[in-house]
TrEMBL record:
Residues 99-133 form a coiled coil. It comes from the Eukaryota. This is Zinc finger GRF-type domain-containing protein. It comes from Brassica cretica (Mustard). Keywords: Coiled coil.
Amino acid sequence: MGQDYSYSQPSSSSNSLDMSSLLEAEAKLYADEAESPYCNAEPDQFPPQREPDDGIPTACYCGAQPVVECSYTPKDPYKRYFTYANVDDGDCHIWKWWDVALMEEMSEFQRHLKQLKDQAFECDQKLLKLQKTLCELKKKSETPNAFALALCAMVSALVFIGRASKK
């Protein structure tokens, strides 16, 4: 009990930090975070996936395989449709007319075919440009250059392999 505990407030001496230096340090910290590749990561881009009910269904939301059945209603007699064996369990299942599914599948097929044709056209254009460049290089050199001939053969072989793998 004979000890005297005293406490004093910190003074504004040169050892203590002022508000402006704290703000500057915080600004530097945020600037470092802004430059960090971990904070500015690009969001993942995933290729578009088909919905389970696009085109001809291959599986239901529940994972079941489709069954083709025939309608016997007066409104749609003998019209085919896709359904599932456990359609009466109360869950959400895919149900689609057969002809609608085929039309969706064909339009997707046509879109994909057009995409492949566009890619083939671009490859042909690149091939023509490469062949033209190689011919110009060949004309510039007076003596047959083994490197240019080998390069031409390699480009032709790569194009041939690329076209063969697309078929």
